[in-house]
Structure formats: C-alpha cells, structure tokens
C-alpha cells in the first residue's frame, strides 16, 4: 500500500463469473499470488457469477451447455436442480480449491488513469492502482429495455428476463413476451402452461435451426461476433447469430401455436399493444426478453468506445488501452469462450508485465513461469 492508502497490484480482475474465474486460475498458474499480485473483485453476494440470479425453473438440464472451468470438471449434477444452485456450488468449490480469494461484495465504480502508467480502480473497499485490468463483468447487470411510445401508460406489469420469477406467477394471466432469443422462447414455453393466453412479438422472423449444434457452426457464429468487435461495433450475442435450436420441446410448442410470432408492435396502450394497421392485443403482462448489453460503464473514464458504440478489441486486448483486457465480452460471451478468453488475457497481461518495470516484488519469484496449482479431479455436487 502506498501512503495515500492506494493498494498497488499487478492485475485487478473485475467479475468472478466464468470469465473472471478462468482468468484468476491462469494468473495463479503463471505464478501470481492472489491478494498479493492480483485481486478478484465481484459485487454479487455469492459465488456463481450471473448464474446465481437465474430463475429457479432454468434447471441445469435446460442450459445449452455449461463448459467446465479450467482444471476442475463438474460431474454428477442433477439436471432437475436449478442451474443457479448447481453452478453456484461449483464456482464456490472452484474458488476454494484454487484459493482464488474473491473479494465480495465489492462494487467497482470506475477505472481511470493513475500515476506511473497505472490504472486506478475505485471500489467500495478502496482504491487499487494496477498495471493491468482484466474486465469480466458480463452482461447480466445491464438488461436492455427497448423504448416504445406509450410504454409509461401501460397499466399492467412490465418486467425483464433479468427479473423473471418463473412461470407460476402468471397463472391465469395474459402474457406478451417480446424478443426472439433463447430466453424469450424458454419463457413462452414455460408460461404457456400456466397463463390464460400468451403472445410472442419479435422484431425479425425467428430462425430455427435443425440438427445438432456443431462445433463448426459455433466457430462461424463466434467469428461473426469477433468481426463486429474488431470493427468497434457493439457485440451481438452469440445466440443471435446461431439461430434457435429446434429441439423436441420447441417442435411441440410450435405445433401447439405457442411460438406463433407477431411482428413488432408500434405502440403500447394502457391495456396492451397496438399496430398501425389497427390490430391490438390486450395483455396483463409485458415480459421483455430483449437481452443484455456489456456491463462496462465503470470503464467510461478510459474512453475506450469507438464511434460505432463498441469497444474495439484485438483478441482480449482493448485497442485504445493495452492495459485493459475484456473477457466474456462479445465473441467470448459463452462459457467456453469465457474460459479461453481468461487464458488468452493472462498470456497478454504477462507480456505486458514483463515490459520495463517488470512484475513487481509481490509476484512470486519466477512469475511468468507455469507453476502447479493445487487440486485435481472433478467436483461432485453434494445431493440437495
Ligand atoms: C439466461 C441466460 C442463459 C445462458 N445460458 C448459457 C448456456 O447455457 N451456455 C453458455 O455457454 N452460455 C450461456 N449464457 C451466456 C453466459 O452468460 C455466459 O456464457 C457466461 O456464463 C458469462 O460469464 P461471465 O463471466 O462473462 O459473466 P457473468 O457470469 O455475468 O459474471 C460477471 C460477474 O461480474 C460481476 N460484476 C459486474 N459488474 C461489476 C462491477 N461493476 N463491480 C464488481 N463486480 C461486477 C457480477 O457480479 C458477476 O458475478 C447464458 C446467458 C443468459 C443471460
């Protein structure tokens, strides 16, 4: 700590979801010590990243595929248990096994230029001065609500996927779901079992994809998002470019008319939504399944955004400031992408730390050289 009470470190990781934990694991592997050379900060109350907040009916069996964190598999998880519980317990065990010492709940409010080429990370537990920042803040904290005329006049209930409580609360109600992504279709299929009536509104015609999700398809989707980020455009979600998987449940819902889609309405009325051609739908609830945006407001003082609205990155490294690495952002916003990005970011950070100035004394002797990390073998979730 220096005299002004600012703690000096080599690396600050913001966010302890899949991306942040992967980065922390790799920082340990290259010999940096948690709480000494690096620190991981997260404002959520518990381990689990955004998964801890996902609705109880999103069971582990319903997620599209959760890639294990590096160095510790997850086995024997009951597909009927909420993914929030399963992944929360898995991440907690992971942090513990690798001694990652996540600081929580700690809010990172801003990152700005400091002295001597360091970044100042202002947090609810004080200020850190760091040589590199790995930003792993995901998107959950920034739900995207589009604005439509008349929205404030609606007398029913409006909510977003981020506050979705599960389907039972909508028993006997008319529910309109907005959004053509995976969350929207999942909400509809669940709610239709309880609601009096459901409606689905999407901006463009949804694309359903036959056949299994192949690696090749995944790669092509990631490449499309990567291209946007390279060009400084706001990233799209990977799902938005892969289309919706046509599994048995989706097929059934389509046959039952649950996924009959209406085009986007023109305005919201006190009792529903309306189109300029005279059509109206009366509804009790509007559920906005309209996605999320990267939670990067705390980086605003660094002025990383391009005129296109996105942060341009080469790999994980922000083009406008090579000290900042973005993981779980754009093309790496999936559990597998987050894992890879964590590793890539650490490689890049280590190159940076070896530049003049070197790794400060807090790093273990020989930092930058792979060291064994404790533990091996899978994590088996204890029975509920
Ligand atoms: C409903 C839903 C289902 C999904 N299903 C899948 C799936 O099946 N498979 C898949 O691969 N991907 C899925 N995804 C994408 C998924 O979110 C990512 O794959 C991955 O889990 C994101 O990890 P992350 O570490 O980037 O972000 P997160 O898990 O969101 O972690 C970010 C962390 O940063 C913290 N944070 C944010 N801002 C701050 C701040 N200012 N200060 C301090 N801490 C902060 C948060 O508390 C959080 O813990 C899904 C996404 C959604 C929304």
UniProtKB/TrEMBL annotation:
Pfam families registered for this protein in UniProt? Pyr_redox_3
Q: Which InterPro entries match?
A: Auxin_biosynth/cation_transpt (IPR050982), FAD/NAD-bd_sf (IPR036188)
Keyword line: Oxidoreductase
Keyword Mitochondrion recorded: no
Which superkingdom is the protein from?
A: Bacteria
Name of the protein this chain belongs to: Oxidoreductase
Name the species this protein comes from.
Streptomyces badius
